[in-house]
Amino acid sequence: MIKHNRLSSEQYAENFSDIHPPYESITAAKVDANRCLFCYDAPCMKSCPTSIDVPKFIKQIATENIKGSAKTIFSSNIMGAGCSKVCPVEKLCEGACVYNLLEEEPIPIARLQRYSREMAMKENWQLFQRKNSTGKRWPLLVQALQA
Prior knowledge:
Blueprint: H1 9-15, H2 26-33, H3 43-46, H4 54-62, H5 66-76, H6 80-86, H7 93-96, H8 109-123, H9 139-146
Helix pairs in contact: 2-4, 4-5, 4-8, 5-8, 6-8
């Protein structure tokens, strides 16, 4: 028989914590971002199914351009907010990081992406501008509105 509320809050936190926990400060994010080698032909970018410019957004975090970093992520993938939580980065971008060849810990790309997108959402940054109206209308919509 399964009991309701059988896990203590400590057990719940241990069993259901984030795989890629958020950074506590910009300093911690910058430390990891500054480890990146900003590879010319970046294997992390090649392995990303959405082709996010990983070295670019990491460089933007390293230079404290968090808004630019978020725009880089969301320009390639409008679902960038979810990727840092559900994407199997250990098989994709982080798995392709050159640090793996050096037998070192790869750049925590998912955590850096999460930091960038959480800051954008927290600060409610307007990353994109709506295009001006062309004045064109859908004929069926116009007919429906006139009826």
